[in-house]
From TrEMBL:
Lineage, opening ranks: Bacteria, Pseudomonadati, Pseudomonadota, Alphaproteobacteria, Hyphomicrobiales
Function noted in UniProt: Part of the ABC transporter complex HmuTUV involved in hemin import. Responsible for energy coupling to the transport system.
Xref: InterPro entries: AAA+_ATPase, ABC_transporter-like_ATP-bd, P-loop_NTPase
GO terms for MF: ATP binding; ATP hydrolysis activity
PANTHER family associated with the record: HEMIN IMPORT ATP-BINDING PROTEIN HMUV (PTHR42794)
Lineage: superkingdom: Bacteria
Key words, A-Z: ATP-binding, Nucleotide-binding, Translocase, Transport
Family: Belongs to the ABC transporter superfamily.
Ranges where the ABC transporter domain occurs: 3-234
Protein name: ABC transporter ATP-binding protein
Organism the protein comes from: Acuticoccus mangrovi
């Protein structure tokens, strides 16, 4: 499903944190959002997910303003994996992932085999099935991150929004989670700090000082000039001889 930001801004007191961002992410697209610390990525993702109301402008889910859609239908459509998400202690990994099914349950559609399968598939997708009975509070940071992603997958959303999902992950799990995200047939918007990981997205948007300053294919948008202007580092582009992929190498302050 398509997700659109139509001139959205968000203000804290007198400070504009996100300024007039317009963006349309198409059905099935994987869109990477990059930008320095404090550039407004998380704030924009929260507005796109419908959990923070814009100070001005609007978010459209398909063609409908998100504010006009019931919370339940928004939750059936969009899953958000936040950056430092925590959850209450004394629940197991499976309990945490089962929470992803909440938007689909009601008196008329109680927990069923279908829900059981969605939870099992999600645990398997992030490689956490063996830890399903473990208590949440005994998990490492990376394991918690994978459980949060599993909870979002169990939700079976049409739009998946992830805020730095590879933050706490070892390199194997970084690559497997990114490959999983790229394979999912859903609209995905993912904030990333690793610009080489962003290179694998269909399109990339760059946030700088609350504005979306560039949008387009990664090789065009992540130019050495743009990286120097926005991130204040010098970059060179190297080509991997094994597959011709472009890799960025960074050289500290320009
Ligand atoms: N409720 C708030 N009140 C005041 N300032 C806020 C509030 N929420 C966010 N900010 C500020 O807005 C700016 C953007 O924050 P945001 O978390 O969106 O940035 P980000 O690009 O996701 O950063 P990071 O890469 O560090 O995660 C930051 O300077 C932050 O301190």
């Amino acid at each position: 499903m398509k997700l659109t930001a139509d001139g959205v801004s968000w203000q804290a007191g007198a400070t504009l944190i996100v300024q007039s961002v317009s963006l349309a992410v198409g059905a099935g697209e994987t869109f990477g959002l990059v930008g320095p610390n404090g550039s407004g990525k998380s704030t924009l993702l929260k507005m796109l997910a419908g959990i923070r109301a814009p100070s001005s402008g609007r978010i459209l889910l398909g063609d409908e303003p998100i504010g006009a859609i019931s919370r339940r239908r928004v939750a059936q459509t969009i899953a958000l994996v936040e950056q430092l998400a925590d959850t209450i202690d004394r629940i197991t990994v499976r309990d945490a992932v089962e929470l992803g099914r909440t938007p689909w349950l009601s008196a008329l559609s109680p927990w069923s085999v279908r829900d059981e399968e969605a939870v099992a598939d999600a645990l398997r997708a992030v490689g956490m099935e063996r830890l399903a009975t473990r208590s949440w509070h005994t998990l490492s940071g990376g394991e918690r991150q994978r459980v949060h992603i599993a909870r979002a997958l169990a939700q079976e959303p049409s739009i998946l929004i992830l805020d730095e999902p590879t933050n706490h992950l070892d390199i194997h799990h970084q690559l497997s989670i990114l490959a999983l995200i790229a394979r999912l047939p859903v609209t995905t918007i993912v904030a990333l700090h690793d610009l080489n990981q962003a290179m694998a997205c269909d399109r990339v948007g760059i946030m700088d000082g609350g504005r979306l300053v560039a949008v387009g294919p990664p090789r065009e948008v992540l130019s050495t000039e743009r990286i120097e202007t926005t991130f204040a580092v010098r970059a060179t582009i190297c080509v991997d001889p094994s597959d011709g992929a472009h890799l960025l190498r960074f050289h500290g302050t320009p």
